[in-house]
Amino acid sequence: MTSLFQPPAASTPHDDYKIYGFSGNPFAVDETLATIGGDDDADRFKRIYCAREIARLAARIQEEALAGAQRRLWLKEDETVPKRYNNVVTTGVFRALLTAEAPRLLPVYVPVPQVFKDLSGGVYNLLVDRLLPRYLKNATYAFVYQELAQAGSEVPFDAAGLRAEMDATRGVALDMILYGREFALTEAEEYGVEEEVEEIASGEVASSPAEQAPRNDGTTRPEDEATQPEEAIEEAEAPVDDRRQPLLEFIGTRLNDEAFGFGPTLRLAISTALADNFVRARMILEQADRPKDELLGLIRFASRYYNGVVVLIDQLDPWTQFTEPDRIKFLSSLHEFDLISGGRAVTVMLSNKFIYDSFDARFRDQCVTLPLHLSWVTRSVEEIGRDRAVAGRMFAAWLAPAGTAEPETIAPLTAETIDVLLTKAQDSPYIALELARELVERGRAQGRLTLDGAFASQTV
To answer: What is the model's pLDDT at position 188?
Structure first.
C-alpha cells in the first residue's frame, strides 16, 4: 500500500492505450469540469468540449510540475470565441488541479493588482490563504511521517510502528496521540476563523512543540476546561499517550534543521499545529513579519505532501498601463520567485493575445505557450452532425495531442467509423463522442489497432 504521507511521486500513465498512441481514453472526459448550463445537444456539446480543453491543459501543467522544470507556462485565450468560454476553461483548470489526486498539486490564484508591489510576499499570503486547515494538516502529518523514517534511536518508541498506524488509519492514530481524539473542524474553522490569536512578537523564536500547552482535542485548550461541562472535564482527563511528549520533542529538534529552510513563523506554526490546533497554526502563518523570507520554507513544507505548487497569475490587463520601471520591477520579481521556489512551483500566466503580445519578446521566449482551442464551441451542432467532413475535422481536433486548430488525422478511427457513430447518435455530436468513448474502451480490451466502421457497427 502506498502511504498517504510518503513524499509525493509521479503518477504512472495507463499503458493499455499505447496501441493508439494515447495515454488514456481521449473521449473519457468529465464534463462536470466545465460550468456550462443547459441540457440540449448544443449545451452539452459546448460543455464537453470545454471540459476536454480543461483536462488537456491541466494534464500539461501537471506534467510540468512533476518534471520540476523551471519553466513558465502561458495559457493564451482563444479570441475566436466569447470571453465566457475562455473563463470557463481557465477557472475549470484551477478546479481540476485542486481536486486532482495523482498528482497532488496545490494551485494558488494570483491576481496581479493584488501582488504588484511585492510578488513573492503576495504569493506567500495567497498560499497561506489556500492552505485551509485540512491541507495544512496533510502537509504537517507528511512532515512528521517522513521525519520519523529517519528517527532511529532519537525517539524512545517504535517509529516504524507509529508510521504503520498512521498508514492504517490515514493519520487518525496521530490525532489520538496529539489530541486524545480524532481531529475534526467545524465548518467555521474550515473556511473561516472564529477566535483570535495573539500577535507574534517581532523576532520571536519558535518554541518546540513540547514547550507549548497541549490541547486535548481540536477545539478546547486545558486552560478553558473550567468553563466546560463536567462530562467534558472527565473526557479531557483521559490518559495521555506516552509517545506524545517524546514525539513533540523530536519534531521540535527537526524543525530547526537549516537544510529545510523553514522560517521562524513556519516553525512556530508547525509547533502550534502539533501541540494545539491547525486553525491557530494557520493564523500564525498569516502574521509573518517578512512573508517573502518565509516563502521558500513554506513551499518546501507544502511539497512534503503535494507534488508541487502551481501559481496561476491572472488579471494582467494593467500591464499595458505599466511604466517601464514598473515592468522591469514586475519581471524581476517573477525571476526572483522562480529562484525562491527552487523548481517546486510552476508559474502559469493567463491572458488574451493582446496582453501576451505586449510583453517583451525575450520574456515570451522563456515561456511555453499553451493556446486554448475552443472554436468548435461556436459551431452549429447541426452542421457538425450532418456534414461528415466537418465532423471528421472536429474528431481530429479532439484527438490532436496539443489541440491544434488544423489537425490532419483521426486515427485510430476512420471516416466510416465517424459516419457510423453519428448515424447511431442521430447526428448528435455530443452523443457520438460518448459512443466513441465506449468504442475505444472495447477496442483496447480486444487489442484492435484500428477501430473501423465495421467494428463500430457491431460494438456500439
So the answer is: 65
